[in-house]
Amino acid sequence: MGIVTLAVATAMMAPPTVDSKQHECLALNIYHEARGERLEGQIAVAQVTLNRATHKEWPSTICDVVYQPKQFSWTHMIKNHTPSDSKSYDMAKVIARDVMIGNVADPTDGAVFYHANWVNPSWTSSLTLSKVIGNHLFYTWDGTWDEPGNTD
Hints:
Elements: H1 2-13, H2 20-34, H3 39-54, H4 62-66, H5 74-77, H6 86-100, E1 113-116, E2 128-133, E3 136-140
Antiparallel strand pairs: 1-3, 2-3
C-alpha cells in the first residue's frame, strides 16, 4: 500500500501539462500583442484568445484562433515571429501556461475582442465594453455573425 500511495501522491504533485504547440501559439500572441503591458494586461490578452477558442464562432484551438486571418495584427504585419526579447518571451510562456491550466481568473469578464486605446475600430459599436486594462479596451459579445466567417 505504501508504494501505491507514494505513486498517487507523486502523480498529484506533478505539474499539469499543456500541449506544447498550443502553448507556443498563446505565448507568441501574448508576447507580440501585450509584452509592454503589466501582468494583468498580458493575462487579459491570453484570456481573450482562450475565450475565442471556446466560443462557437471561432476555431476551437488556440493556434487556429491566433492564426485566423486578420485577427491579431502581428500574424500578418511582421515577417519574423521569433521573439527578440527573451525575458519578455519567457514571461509570456509562464503566463500562457498559467492561463491554459486555469491558474488565473479572467480579468476581462469573458471578452472575445480587444483593441489598443489609440485606435477606434468601427466594430466596437455592436459590442459591450467589459474592461479597460492598461492600453487595451476589452469587449464581450454573445451574438453570431451575419454570414459565416464575416467579422465586420
